[in-house]
Structure formats: structure tokens, C-alpha cells
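Delta(5)-3-ketosteroid isomerase: structure, please.
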Amino acid sequence: MPSSTVPSSTAPTVSDHIDTAALVSRYLATISTGTAAEIAELYAPDARLEDPVGSEPRIGRPAIEEFYRGLDGTDSTAELLVVRAVGGQAAFHFRVTTRLPGRTIVMEPIDMMTFDDSGLITSMRAFWAPADMTVQVNAST
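Here you go.
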């Protein structure tokens, strides 16, 4: 009976030295505390963002910064729930909580990211639908 083995490559990939899980954590920390410009700086100059998957892709830092501009001035926190990272790629499930006057929005997307050798995001695809978002009405104080 032939043995079944999974081939493994000993040749290093271009991203072997990158701690991809740490880059995901940096991204989420910047979502929580940074500006749209600071988030866009995490992306390569010609990066591609598709959020949500199926929407018109945004290509390049200016378009990506414009996408994140909606977070500027909001009280948002991002919490990593699960990450799977291999080489220069990661898939991760996280929760974003955004507190607005009178309501709190909670969203739990799954993102897929690819990073270049310098640790910049070259591609981000966010998997979510309206069912993955909840809106809680806050009581007046």
C-alpha cells in the first residue's frame, strides 16, 4: 500500500521572516486607535481592498484611505477572535464595536490579507453580510 505524505517545501518563501499574526494585530490596533491615513499607511501603495467581497475594489492608498475615513472620529475597538497565518497570508475573524450617539454597531467579519516582504498589506478581502452586523439602541442618559 503506497504511503500518503504531504509534500513540504524547504525553499523559503519571500515572507518567511514576517510575523503575519503580529501584522494582523497591528492592523486591528490601528483600526481601534488610528486615523484613516494611519490605516492606509499599513497598505502597499498599489494595494487592493475589497470590503465587502463582491463590492467595487478600492485600489491604491488614496482610495483605501477614503474607505476608512468613516472611522475617523468614532469610538471604535477591534478585537481579534481567531487568526490563521501562514507565510505572508492571513485569514482572521474579528469583532469591531463602534459606539455612536444613541447606538452601538457590532460587526464580525472574516478578513483575508496578503502581505509583501516589508509587511505592508497588498490585498484585503472582507467577508461579511448585513446579517453579520447588529445595531444596539442605547438608552438616553
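Notes: Helices lie at 20-33, 36-40, 61-68.
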